[in-house]
From TrEMBL:
<comment type="similarity">
    <text>Belongs to the acetokinase family.</text>
</comment>
<keyword id="KW-0963">Cytoplasm</keyword>
<dbReference type="InterPro" id="IPR000890">
    <property type="entry name" value="Aliphatic_acid_kin_short-chain"/>
</dbReference>
<comment type="subunit">
    <text>Homodimer.</text>
</comment>
<dbReference type="InterPro" id="IPR043129">
    <property type="entry name" value="ATPase_NBD"/>
</dbReference>
<dbReference type="Pfam" id="PF00871">
    <property type="entry name" value="Acetate_kinase"/>
</dbReference>
<dbReference type="GO" id="GO:0005737">
    <property type="term" value="C:cytoplasm"/>
</dbReference>
<dbReference type="GO" id="GO:0000287">
    <property type="term" value="F:magnesium ion binding"/>
</dbReference>
<protein>
    <recommendedName>
        <fullName>Acetate kinase</fullName>
        <ecNumber>2.7.2.1</ecNumber>
    </recommendedName>
</protein>
<keyword id="KW-0418">Kinase</keyword>
<dbReference type="GO" id="GO:0008776">
    <property type="term" value="F:acetate kinase activity"/>
</dbReference>
<feature type="binding site">
    <location>
        <position position="88"/>
    </location>
    <ligand>
        <name>substrate</name>
    </ligand>
</feature>
<dbReference type="InterPro" id="IPR004372">
    <property type="entry name" value="Ac/propionate_kinase"/>
</dbReference>
<dbReference type="GO" id="GO:0006085">
    <property type="term" value="P:acetyl-CoA biosynthetic process"/>
</dbReference>
<comment type="function">
    <text>Catalyzes the formation of acetyl phosphate from acetate and ATP. Can also catalyze the reverse reaction.</text>
</comment>
<feature type="binding site">
    <location>
        <position position="14"/>
    </location>
    <ligand>
        <name>ATP</name>
    </ligand>
</feature>
<keyword id="KW-0067">ATP-binding</keyword>
Length: 398
């Protein structure tokens, strides 16, 4: 079975083609700057070297046609080999607790969630509609970033605001990075040799966007991101948790408009706001050269992660493993060590030698006798979308 995974952004199209029997990517790539005078297409066939070409894609439809031409040249029997197309959709609101076979009803619900994800759902929807038009004979499945966290209890997802804001306008915590948290939870349980249903985990997805999840028996019971991806951890350019009244202060004393405050919180804060960099490698380099603002950014970033570890340990009561994933979580040994310092009372410790070694696809970085395993697990959101798409097909056939 071969499944194509599509992730349509506002001006990009990321894709992966999976052989589900081997769970390997046969083809993966990214088309960027869609709608501009010159677009770029970078792709890789299997484990071969990446190739890049310049082209012009006026819209997602033309980008998909470029991809489909490549697929026809790659697959012996062309597009007829595709069993399904899995689409990443950022926000499913309260409509979707699992992947959904795309029909007009599903499209209507994705449209209804646009006010909750105005930067992402319209692009996701555009990619879906173009793909349905160009590849109508193949089942299409929507996989939602928010679905994994729809198991949060009401006392965890509700905000202490007037009830009608929730009941009439959907103001609640939804959580994001669900496909990543779901994938690494399964891989962590496999690594530990435990059934997922008997495994309690704290999963840390750390990249330019970052979130934590408390997972009890494979079920998400709390997560750091909220109604939007702004809540929670300090991130590359997002502020994370701050006093909500700062917005009122900025408006009253500096005369800032709502759009300016929105841009400040999402695009100019976090690590970028503190030290002028949002790439963790650049922040480390500045800190090593003696830059105090970079040192502060690193300290703040690690401290806020440690606070969530403690909070979610209390929520779970028992933790089998603390799991680091995402671009930063998988590659930043200093951060992993710092986040776990002082947590021996919780049974959490890091072995420096194991922490310094590459961990692919999964490895323990804690001492063998630690009550809580500390793991590094390479995430694969595209593969998780493909797996969920395949599961949806099985349910459909039954």
């Amino acid at each position: 079975m071969k499944i194509l995974v599509l992730n349509a952004g506002s001006s990009s199209l990321k894709y992966s083609l999976f052989d589900m029997a081997e769970r390997t990517a046969l083809l993966s790539g990214l088309i960027e700057r869609i709608g501009e005078a010159e677009s770029s297409h970078r792709y890789r066939l299997g484990a071969s070297a990446a190739q890049q070409q310049a082209l012009t894609c006026r819209d997602h439809g033309q980008a998909l046609q470029t991809l489909f031409s490549l697929l026809r040249a790659t697959l012996p029997s062309g597009l007829s080999e595709l069993a399904a197309v899995g689409h990443r959709v950022v926000h499913g609101g309260e409509f979707f607790h699992e992947p959904a076979l795309i029909d007009r009803r599903v499209i209507a619900h994705i449209e209804a969630a646009i006010p909750l994800a105005p930067l992402h759902n319209p692009a996701n929807l555009s990619g879906i509609e173009q793909a349905l038009h160009l590849l109508a004979e193949v089942p299409h499945v929507a996989v939602f970033d928010t679905a994994f966290h729809q198991t949060l209890p009401d006392y965890a997802f509700r905000y202490p605001l007037p009830s009608q804001l929730y009941s009439e306008h959907g103001v609640r915590r939804y959580g994001f990075h669900g496909t990543s948290h779901a994938y690494v939870a399964k891989r962590a349980a496999d690594y530990l040799g435990k059934p997922l249903a008997a495994t309690n985990l704290i999963t840390l997805h750390l990249g330019n966007g970052a979130s934590v999840a408390a997972i009890a028996g494979g079920i998400s019971i709390d997560t750091s991101m909220g109604m939007t991806p702004l809540e929670g951890l300090m991130m590359g350019s997002r502020c994370g948790d701050i006093d909500p009244a700062i917005a009122f202060y900025l408006a009253r004393t500096l005369g800032m408009e709502l759009d300016a405050i929105d841009k400040l919180y999402n695009k100019a804060s976090g690590c970028l706001g503190v030290c002028g960099e949002n790439d963790m490698r650049a922040i480390h380099a500045k800190a090593e050269s003696g830059d105090d603002s970079a040192k502060l950014a690193l300290a703040m970033y690690a401290y806020r992660i440690k606070k969530y570890i403690g909070a979610y340990y209390a929520v779970l009561g028992r933790v089998d493993a603390l799991v680091f994933t995402g671009g930063i979580g998988e590659n930043d040994a200093w951060l992993r060590q710092t986040c776990c310092e002082g947590l021996t009372a919780f049974g959490i410790a890091v072995d420096p030698a194991a922490n310094a070694a590459p961990a692919k696809p999964a490895a323990a970085i804690s001492p063998a006798a630690s009550p809580v395993a500390v793991l590094v697990v390479n995430t694969d959101e595209e593969l998780e979308i493909a797996l969920q798409t395949a599961e949806c097909l099985v349910k459909r056939s039954n």
